## 1
Amino acid sequence: MPGKWYIEQMTFPELLNRNVVKFGTRRAQWWKTGPNTTTSITYAELGIIVKQLTAGLMSLGVEKGDRVGIET
């Protein structure tokens, strides 16, 4: 189909927000926590974590264009 894209072009924040709304209850990340155990978070939970992290960085004075390193 010429002229019709099946993949939308969007920024990472736009993509994350779209997925939080569209797939809120679906698993966004899944990782192994032990030999026979796993943990996961949904897109809704990921959206909350990202908003909290963003608010924290903004409260520290981080502005658009600043570079930030995050260690866990």
## 2
Amino acid sequence: MTIRQKTDPLDELFRSQQEEINKYKWIESEKAGRDIGWERAAEEWMRNCFPKWKHHRWQELIREADRKAQSRN
């Protein structure tokens, strides 16, 4: 028997956002030749990347909701 766990959409968004900040931190730290730190990475990511990321994630969630609604019909 397979048990499917429902994931909380907010948890998934938070996890995804943290993952993106970690990627940003790694890339920018490599460019700087040193660790820029989580706080700086998070602030810069929120300022420079968050609006486009949010739009992209929102569109993904809408498509997923539409697919689920269509599969129920």
## 3
Amino acid sequence: MAITDLYSALPARSDTPTAPTPREQYDSVVESITVPDDELTALAGQRAVAVKAYLVNEVGLSADRAVVAQADLKDATMDSAVWN
């Protein structure tokens, strides 16, 4: 589906007097998508398992050296230098 179609499906915005550029349409579509934290955590876990499987099965890393653990994000602080 093209970004124009996704943008067209969004509620009309009255604050844009001119037609938005494709980049502005893309940004609006991205901003409209919300992903709950639990889904992001599940995705991160799936990614970690896939990386471990690759390292163990394809690269030959010992399984006990590739550990998948749940991070405690409640105490983590967001350092703007890292995230920006």
## 4
Amino acid sequence: MAAPLFDAQRVGSNPKRGDSPGSHQPAGWAWPPGGAAYGYTAGTMGNSGARAQFRHWNVVACICALAPACARPTPPPQKAPEATGHVAVPAPEPSEAQVPLQVPTRNASRLAFRGKRDVSFGTTGSTSIWQKSGEHRFKAVALGPDGVVYTVGHAPFTHGTDMAVARFDATGKLDATYGRGGVVQIGQRRAFGEAIAVDAQGKVVVAGYFYGKGGTNFIVARLSPHGTLDASFGTAGTVEHSAGQDNRAQAVHVRADGKLLISGYHGSDTNQVLCLEGDGTPCAQFGTAGVGLVRPVPGKRAFATRSALHGDGGIVLSGYLPSKDRMFVSRLDARGAPDAAFGTGGSMLLQDVAVGSAWALAVDSADRILVAGHAPSGPIVIARLRADGQIDESFGRNGLAVPLGASDEVYALLPLPSGHILGAGFRGLGDAAQPLFVLLTSDGAEERPSWVDDKAPRPSFIFGAALDARGRVVVAGDSPGDRWSAWVGRYD
């Protein structure tokens, strides 16, 4: 259940955004460990002589605002403090001259996500890398323990462009102890990284494609916590997979049972999900020889661009059909078979989208599916499906939200703990591109108008995003200016 959001203040003592516990703390308030400034409240409230009891978690307050003459409420019974390392300090008694507390005002956008650069990360909120002349791009980001940030993409190396994995510490500094100066090269054969995940042992798993005989092929690699290829996985740390002339892995996930699911396409009517065991061998009980197939419309080319774990070991894929300009969502069950109970025969066709634009997919805590695509007429369309693949008509207008314009692209969707939905991508193309954010309420309405990071160098693109344990959003992309650099940033 999403926590209600409150912005509480008391005359003469207003907690400012970002303050730590104890600073600007109003009398009568007890901040929880970690300094969360939102959540539930407890106390009594007077209204025309009657008192209404209310109680929630995280923040404790005494509020008496609707009736100016109401008496100070009797505080609730106090429990003995638990041994948490925090000292319980009684709140001072209010004086007669003090003005009663005002009723908290809901200001969800400020507390759910402000969209401001976290200046404690990198240089004023971001860090860029540039090795030598050539294209540097981060395509995805994942988070490790203690605020560590991992990214994957591609960069120029001695033998040409290859997959690149980088690690940054919690302050946004490139970790020189990881790989070679903070960056690991994978491939030496024109490999490109598209997706990244971190497993329960802290090992990084990346997926993408490389150019080989006959076209492109899947490549999956696993790295040790020190940034070396894990020799216990596949062949010397990598697994290659081919099923046609144009095979491109687009997403990778670590299931709860430790199995890896890698999704992508191979330029036909069939998309695929490759299942690998912890040692890199195909899963015997998944699909056929470890490969599950997705055909949204038999005989029509389809490109699965994103995927997400769904339900009890299943996976949903989204993408587009170029011949129909349609966005699709398909589901395989935990054994790699099309889920006949999802949509129609395992797939659902959605709103018309422009070719090549269905680049964002997410699953919320209720197993509802969020997907974004660019409509041919211009604006971004964000749709929500129920767990069974049917349109959720309680979202937006008949299941669709249209919060952005023709020059906007959304490459990541993040369901937030507050219940809000955050989209990240970019506005504009070429030299005009800027990092873009959009914040929706849980029912698909705009919580605030979409906005750009006007402090980022132009052009700058966001291609991946992740939510950290403190509710901050870490993004990754590139900035193809005078020096084509890859960058990572953090926002709160």
